[in-house]
Prior knowledge:
NnrS family protein; 0% strand; NnrS; 14 helices; mainly alpha; 75% helix; transmembrane helix; transmembrane
Amino acid sequence: xxxxxxxxLFSVGFRPLFLAGAGFAVLAxxxxxxxxxxxxxxxxxAGGMLAWHRHEMPFGFAAAIVGGFLLTAVPNWTGIAPxxxxxxxxxVLVWLxxxxxxxxxLPVGAVLLVQGAFLPLLAGLLGRDLIAAxxxxxxxxxxxxxxxxxxxxxxxxxxxxxxxxxxxxxxLAALWLIAALMTVIGGRVLPFFIQRGLNRPPAPxxxxxxxxxxxxxxxxxxxxxxxxxDDSPSLWLAALFVLVGxxxxxxxxxxxxxxxxxxxxxxxxxxxxxxMALATLAMALWHLGLIGQQSLAxxxxxxxxxxGLILAMIARVCLGHTGRLLQPPKGMVSGFALVLAAAACRxxxxxxxxxGLGLSVLLWCAAFSLFLLRYTGFLFKPRL
Length: 384
């Protein structure tokens, strides 16, 4: 048992949680696709398949990746030793228990408690270290995690009381909170990755105003979803989405360098961030009555923005933090293209053909399967 706690897999948070999150990305979407096409077993999770899918993509898949990234980044920011060994194993088991609780014959209260434990624990661990190191600039990250835990509680309440509207509000608010977190982190790392990846001279310090504007505006968007204010088109919400989307487009223009199209680890991040901007502007169009289905904007964000950024980011982080050259393994470039194609099918093919949904599921599963195939060995081995 001691050997398990000292294994390279449990030496830092990104190793087990990226592996768990990517594996769950394949499994959860595959199960969802099979169920949609009538090929799933009679076994149903608590609350039904729709509730399960809604909950598990932000609070299972995305939460694992966010946790792995922050448990790796915060020690670098604070100088405090990362969570490792048995404490890390315990946290991963809490996450795993939340996934299994859906299918377990447990009392409703116990199921809700198990499902909702991971995010509060993660926020507490990260907040403890950030406060100890007095890293006030990073306190908003803990706030976002705490708000995500609140959204999860809202979603689980909707499942418990069989209130589909409450479920939807909690899930969509959480999705835009994840987008807010990626907006903040993306604003820090994308310019740095582009500068380092293309050997450009150091750029002037990044302007602070985009993050200071985007973070509160993105949090306000999440609050409107949690409050149910997105149920009908609104001019002031259209203006808010135009503001956020416009600043994201401005960032993309400012970050652009023709050389990034030669580097897969850069264009994958850049195009995924572009999907976030597209989704935000699509929400503005919906509020203006120019798009008929709000779900198209939601899935543009979920599949292209969040899914694309997650795959591109974990592919780069795993290479850098295992001591390998920043060049994706054979086949992984196809994975970047596949997840972006999955977003395109979900948003632009589904409105015209039911085949688009199945194709999107297959492309998504193939993309994350390539990550598992090429990176699992790295995560189990010591840093080079």
